[in-house]
Design goal:
Radius of gyration: 25 Å
Structural class: mainly alpha
Number of helices: 13
Distance between the termini: 97 Å
Largest sheet: 3 strands, mixed
Shape: globular
Number of strands: 3
Helix content: 55-70%
Strand order of the largest sheet: 1-3-2
Amino acid sequence: MLQNYLIKTKQLLLLGCICSFIFSACNADIELPQVMELTVEDRQNIANRLLEIITANETYEILDRDEYAEAYQYLDNSVGFLTDSELLTNRNNYNWKVHIINDDEGTNAFATPGGYIYFDTGLLKTIDSEAAFIHLLANEITYADKGFVSQKLQDNYGLQLLLDLALGSTVATAEELLNTLYNQPFDLSSVEEADNFMLELACQKGYDADLFKWFLQNNSTITWLDIHPTNSLDTRLNFILDYECSTLDSMSISMDTYEEFLNNL
């Protein structure tokens, strides 16, 4: 009798422990471990750290802001003009800034987490209209604002490396990381989403996508197209052609200023 009583008592205690565990796991007041992710401050720190790494790399010569003050003033005005939009998630979170890479053979542009954007001089000198430039700039803003470039780096190197960068730590893969930023294509879904947002942002600012379409059609070999690929150039051109913009009567920047900008490079 006593033995049966003890067995039943142990069973009840075990059942009580199980119920207590299940209740605790379901209790909203219990704090479960949170999944780590990059904060706005982390991404801004990464932007600054990557600028240091790029500046220290002989492959990427950044034009001096004091020496090319007028050219940088145009870029600062342009990026400020575009990011002053409620369409952007991080319009006020990032210190948006454009840097010029002195490479007349290069025809690429890329963004980093935190809102820094880089253009090769070769691409800037290939661009033939302010509307085309604004669309390319809006596109790179998108990759930073929507987190596409952060995700690209995280997929390749993991979250911990990005957190190390944010803390200013030295990373052994710095050279490879820069190569990923400059040379590795984005996935098609990110490119399509970025193109759509680019058109919406440029349209909001009153810029005609037809001139951007014409630029891509006549410069189909630029590296930028390889890094931001679609199924085909015709697919992208038709997508741009089909986009309807109703604010083209509100041009905010003179079409002549891009040529003046090129004269200052």
